[in-house]
Please model this.
Amino acid sequence: MIELKDLVMLGQGAPNSLSGGRISRCVCAYSKEHGLVRLYPIPKKLLRQWDVFDATVELNTQDHRENTWKIYRSKEDWQRIEKWIRKKSEYPKEERSKLIQSLAKDNLGDLIKARKSFGVIEPKIIDFELVTQNSATSIQTKLFDPDYYIINQNEFKFKPYVVYECTAKCSCKNPQHKQQIVEWGCYEWMRKNPDSKEHCKKVFDNLRLTDKEWKTYFLVGNIHKSPKTYIIVGVLRFKKKN
Ligand SMILES: [Zn+2]
Model:
């Protein structure tokens, strides 16, 4: 077992169903010592963005992604997981944008080459696209647990995508990236009226991606089955000071 100290919770990925009825999220956290790390499984609602915590972890021999850790004894101790994930404080509000700015030097090309688990990108937004999934059926008949929708993202009729370029010099051949946003808040919004394109389109307004008063950063992470594919796990934004 390994102790990771003073982790700052930055974002969380889509929940997964585990054996024994556990619903867990994978979390992206930052520490001075380790950089951006992936941690799982973490029960929903246990950690919020900007929580500072210590975690006891172990390596998962099944998952070879960079800087990726499993919570120690997570299966046996699921009901008392606080033993291994210990919240300490909140990252100070006035320090948050400084931290993200210091991390936001990444470009997608280098992340892919190094197969990094996460990166923080300052994007130049080019376009938005709500991609329609032809095979999707209405999910309205299945509304019972908010987590359900996220687990079954593929059952949404629409998927939000953003087209952007990295502000940092990008080593990709094609500097324009089209990536899916899987931030939880987007799906929370869409599920209120999942079949209406008009309604779902508003996810982009909600994210304030083109609002000049806000500075936006993307927290991007790769996916297990395809470590060279990155999705936007979180949108971090800060109101600009006048
Ligand atoms: Zn790029």
Summary: The CA atoms of residues 14 and 184 lie 7 Å apart. The pocket of zinc ion is lined by residues 107-109, 165-166, 170, 172, 175, 177 (CB under 6 Å). The first helix runs from residue 93 to 103. The domain at 101-239 is CATH 2.40.50 (OB fold (Dihydrolipoamide Acetyltransferase, E2P)).
